[in-house]
Amino acid sequence: MIGYQYTGAGSAVIAASAADVSFYADMDGDGTMECYRYYLNNGVVYEAVVQGASCASAITSAAGQPVTSSFETKALKVSSLVLQYYNAANQGGALLSVPLSSTDLYLVRRIDIAATVQGVASVTPFTVDTQAVVRAGR
User: Fold this and answer.
1) Residue 96, Cβ neighbours under 10 Å: how many?
2) Is 8 exposed, middle or buried (0-12, 13-18, 19+ CB in 10 A)?
3) DSSP β-ladder status, 108-119 and 126-133
């Protein structure tokens, strides 16, 4: 949902590093743009949301809430969150260096996400891989 309903002149991605991404989206579908941030801190992935016209200036340092449910918070520890950003100029196939520069933010079209987690009762950690694609505005 990165960039969902975003029609601004700039990139939908506000900031991006190896374990922290901020972006514009209207995920709740209310017609008001929000800024979202997902980041890893002490083994927990957090989501921060800031609303308002100037949300981009506040989102990169905004503190969030754990993404997991109360049961999962007690049962899972995230030991690694790796975000890799891919360039639109090469059909989303060229890897960009992190942290992204302000000029590279416009190029992001695909993000690979890998989270390594371990359950309280489990000895062996496992990695979950997925992707996010930057969506165009209306």
Assistant:
1) 18
2) exposed
3) antiparallel
pLDDT at 70: 54
Question: Nearest to residue 23, comparing CAs of 40, 9, 38?
Answer: 38
* Residue 82: closest CA among 121, 103, 113, 45: 113
Q: What is the pTM of this model?
A: 0.71
pLDDT (0 to 100) of residue 71: 47
CA atoms within 13 A on the CB side of 16: 30
Rounded distance between C-alpha atoms, residue 126 and residue 119, angstroms: 9
Mean pLDDT by 10 residues, the chain (138 residues): 84 92 89 92 89 90 80 65 82 79 84 81 74 67
Tell me the backbone φ, ψ of residue 100, rounded to 5 degrees: -75, 140
Amino acid type, 41: N
pLDDT for 4 equals 87
Could you give the CA distance from residue 90 to residue 110 in angstroms, rounded to a whole number? 11
Residue listed under structure tokens 């609303």: 51
Domain boundaries, the chain: 13-133
